Task: structure prediction
Amino acid sequence: MTPESVGVKKTSLVMGKHSGRHAFKDKLSDLGYADVTDDVVQAAFGKFKILADKKKHIYDEDIVALVDDSLIIDNKINAINLKSLKVFAGTGEPQRADMTLDVFGEIKNTSQTGDGPVDAIFKCIKELYPHDVKLSLYQVHAVTEGTDAQATVSVKIEENDRTTVGQSADTDTLVASANAYLNALNKMLIKREKKSLYKNIEPKKLKESI
Result:
């Protein structure tokens, strides 16, 4: 959800390590998160302070990602979870992924081929939970050294005016890839519900709520 989609003009205020909780909460209101609970605010603010120690400036996109993570925890929304994954890759054979997902409590499985193992994995997810989003970022970072290094995968997906970023770390890059995509997708489900909620509010009440 963008601030503009709920009638809020995006601010250019950049947050930093010295920004307090009150300023942080005001920023959330500016970004369209005026209705989140105190628990979500507190959880997101704690993550914000940790991130502020690592980055000189915190931008709107950073804060949105922190709040989305906190919303998933607060709402206990992990609607789609990875249960198992097997990937077949190498020369001479099509790249294939066998996947089992828990989709809203229903166990589903499929097998898909793709242009590489990651493509096959993402095709499995779309087969088991049909959706139409644009994958705008796929990035892998090694967070430790050596052949057994743990990798952090970042995935960014877009749907209409909504954008979410998912991350996951694992010594198996392909497992991290699947979980990062599912993390972004679960966040997108929250944004869909949030936007649907706003659509059902009368314009006058919407203005008062933000």
